[in-house]
Specification:
Elements lengths: L3 E4 L14 E4 L1 H7 L12 H13 L4 E2 L6 E2 L3 E4 L14 H6 L4 E4 L2 E3 L5 E5 L12 E5 L8 E5 L2 H5 L10 E3 L11 E4 L13 E4 L3 E2 L5 E4 L7 H12 L1 H7 L10 H5 L8 H4 L1 E2 L2 E2 H13 L6 H6 L17 H18 L5 H9 L2 H11 L3 H14 L10
Parallel strand pairs: 8-14
Antiparallel strand pairs: 1-2, 3-4, 5-15, 6-7, 8-11, 9-10, 12-13, 12-15, 16-17
Helix pairs in contact: 5-9, 9-11, 11-14
């Protein structure tokens, strides 16, 4: 087929003559990048298009339906647990719990009652990447259109492993549909390419989950282990995948058809790709454990992955440290840049540059785009076979 000259986000006629803004794309490009729908991605520049194309040549999509069959790269399925409108009859506010259900606090943000245990109902606005304790919800009665507002967790609250966010609602634990796992992967459904990050996922312990936080859980034909779930979570939160997602998200939702067509790294590569003495999987597991196990409600997960003491009890959670977490995420990004085959340093810098809010925030906090600089340092260290080095900037 003849290529089609395409341009996106064009605001001035002169930009039509700029080869970096208007460039040819073929039907093969559409089929490579969106094999299920064949729809056109949205590229801000020719370089974005070229980088995205190269990533898709190396990595399969999460679910490929182009053959008429469902071919999954990861053994997961997409689902939701509670719908905020249809299932609202099952929800209780704290006042309703205490006054009507005769409930009483038992631990964290959970309540006991004559009917059984009530667990918090998590919503997308309560989480951030690798963080199931990002924000509490409070009701602003003066805001008629959107009364449920978030109050971000403070650094002091994050550092307290016994602190848990306050939800808007609670549900009976017996009415939740937990997969057979100590935690599940949830990702924010509401998003935008103008946000700091667009694909945001975390582990969620045994709680209720609203439809603004869709779940990726074990598929029908294979159970997914907690160690595999750690890899999947890291892949969802990495910069290269988010860069690609931002070429596809047109509105304010990370829809299923977008998620299924994102390029992901097959799980078996994490056991066969080595960086010095460690596999990619070992590096990912160490970083993700520290990022997600910051509170006592994740102890079942810690036990499941073997982070235990001599009595086979979960060791204490890791201390929340913002700069340490930034370093761990930079190392994870470095691993995934290698696995996606994006190793040119200028290409890495360009991909980081497409997250301007992150750059602004880090420059204000640290004086430089620290995660980009750390990632470049870790990429060299990994290539040199030194995965445990501490990058000093």
């Amino acid at each position: 087929d003849e290529p089609t000259r395409c341009g996106f986000y064009i605001h001035q006629l002169e930009e039509l003559n700029d080869p970096e803004r208007c460039f040819p794309l073929t039907s093969e490009d559409f089929s490579l990048i969106n094999p299920n729908t064949g729809t056109m991605p949205i590229f801000r520049s020719k370089r974005d298009a070229e980088l995205t194309r190269e990533i898709y040549k190396r990595a399969p999509v999460l679910v490929d339906r182009s053959s008429g069959e469902e071919v999954k790269t990861w053994p997961v399925k997409y689902s939701t647990m509670f719908h905020m409108t249809n299932d609202s009859g099952s929800f209780r506010t704290r006042e309703e719990l205490e006054e009507t259900e005769k409930a009483y606090p038992i631990r964290g943000n959970r309540f006991g009652s004559p009917k059984g245990e009530w667990v918090p109902l998590y919503e997308g606005k309560m989480v951030q990447a690798f963080d199931h304790r990002a924000a509490s919800i409070f009701i602003n009665t003066e805001n008629r259109h959107r009364p449920a507002q978030t109050r971000p967790a403070t650094s002091e609250e994050h550092r307290n492993p016994n602190w848990f966010p306050e939800p808007q609602f609670w549900v009976l634990g017996s009415e939740t549909s937990f997969p057979k796992a100590p935690c599940i992967i949830g990702f924010k459904h509401v998003t935008a390419t103008t946000n700091a990050r667009s694909v945001i996922a975390t582990f969620i312990p045994g709680v209720g989950v609203g439809n603004s936080l869709p779940i990726l859980s074990a598929g029908d034909y294979k159970e997914i282990s907690s160690t595999d779930a750690m890899i999947i979570l890291a892949n969802l939160n990495c910069i290269p995948l988010d860069f690609v997602a931002r070429q596809k998200i047109q509105g304010q939702n990370l829809n299923l058809f977008i998620m299924e067509q994102l390029p992901v790294v097959p799980l078996d590569l994490f056991e066969t790709v080595f960086f010095g003495p460690k596999t990619a999987g070992e590096i990912v597991h160490e970083a993700v454990l520290e990022l997600v196990y910051t509170a006592h409600d994740m102890a079942p997960f810690a036990r499941d992955v073997g982070y235990v003491d001599e009595d086979d009890e979960a060791r204490p959670p890791f201390l929340w440290d913002e700069k340490r977490r930034l370093r761990l995420r930079a190392k994870l990004d470095a691993v995934f840049f290698h696995l996606y085959g994006v190793t040119d340093r200028d290409d890495v810098r360009h991909i980081f540059s497409t997250f301007p809010i992150v750059e602004t925030q880090e420059t204000k906090a640290y004086g430089s785009y620290l995660s980009c600089e750390l990632c470049l340092g870790y990429m060299n260290a990994l290539e040199s076979g030194d995965p445990d080095v501490e990058i000093v900037l």
